[in-house]
Amino acid sequence: QVQLVESGGGLVQPGGSLRLSCTASRSIFSSNRVAWYRQAPGKERVLIASLSSSGASNYADSVKGRFTISRDNAENTMYLQMTNLKPEDTAVYYCKVRTFILNTPRDYWGQGTQVTVSS
Q1: Is the dihedral of CA 116, 22, 65, 84 positive or negative?
Q2: Cα separation of 28 and 100, whole Å?
Q3: CA 103/CA 106 separation, integer angstroms
C-alpha cells in the first residue's frame, strides 16, 4: 500500500502562484508515471500534467506554459508549480501514481487539495 499526502493548496489572487506537493509513504515515484488531475465544481476530474519515469512531461493545453510538474525522488515527493493562476484554475487538485503489479496497473491517489483563484 502507498499513501499520498497532498499539501500547498489555498486561496490566491489571479496572476499569483502556488506550489502543490504530494508526498508518498514510500519510494514509488522514480520508476512510475506520476500525474496531477483537477476537478472543478460540477465537472469531471481531468488530467492536467503527467511525468514519465524517464522524465518526459505532458500538459493539458489549459495549463501549458503556466504549470510545471516535477518530482524529487530522494524526498518521495512530486510537485506542481502553478504560475499566472486564473479563476478557471479553481478546483480540487489530486496527485496520482500508476504502478504495475504483474503487468496489472494500480493507481494511488492523494486526498485532494483545494485551490481557489479569486480576487
Answers
A1: positive
A2: 11
A3: 9
The number of residues in the chain equals 119
* Confidence (pLDDT) at 1: 84
Beta-strand pair 113-117/10-12: parallel
Q: For 38-82, write each residue's pLDDT tens digit.
A: 999 999 999 999 999 999 999 999 999 999 999 999 999 999 999
Separation between Cα atoms, residue 79 and residue 21, nearest integer Å? 5
The position carrying cell 499526502 is 5
H/E element holding 102? none
Confidence of residue 100 (pLDDT cuts 50, 70, 90): confident
The residue among 12, 18, 19 whose CA lies nearest residue 87 is 12
Taking residues 77-92, report their average pLDDT: 98
C-alpha triplet 108, 96, 115: angle, nearest 5°: 125
Residues 84 and 75: beta-carbon distance below 8 Å: no
Query: What is the residue whose three cell numbers read 504495475?
Result: 100
